[in-house]
UniProtKB/TrEMBL annotation:
Stored InterPro entries: YozD
The name this protein goes by in its record: YozD family protein
Pfam families: YozD (PF14162)
């Protein structure tokens, strides 16, 4: 299996959830969206789908 570089942005995840939830009739708060994005990111790490890289400031 080859390795590819994928950049996962929690803000992008939150925007995706907002679009999909509103489409389904839900209107989450900004805090709820951030929590969902963080949970999704942690899930992807836990399942070894992605590796977290910490950027050096």
């Amino acid at each position: 299996m080859r390795e590819i570089e994928v950049i996962i942005d929690t803000e992008e995840i939150a925007a995706f959830f907002l679009k999909e939830l509103v489409y389904r009739g839900y209107v989450p708060s900004e805090v709820e969206l951030e929590e969902l994005a963080d949970i999704t990111f942690e899930y992807l790490i836990e399942k070894c789908i992605i590796d977290e890289e910490i950027e050096n400031p």
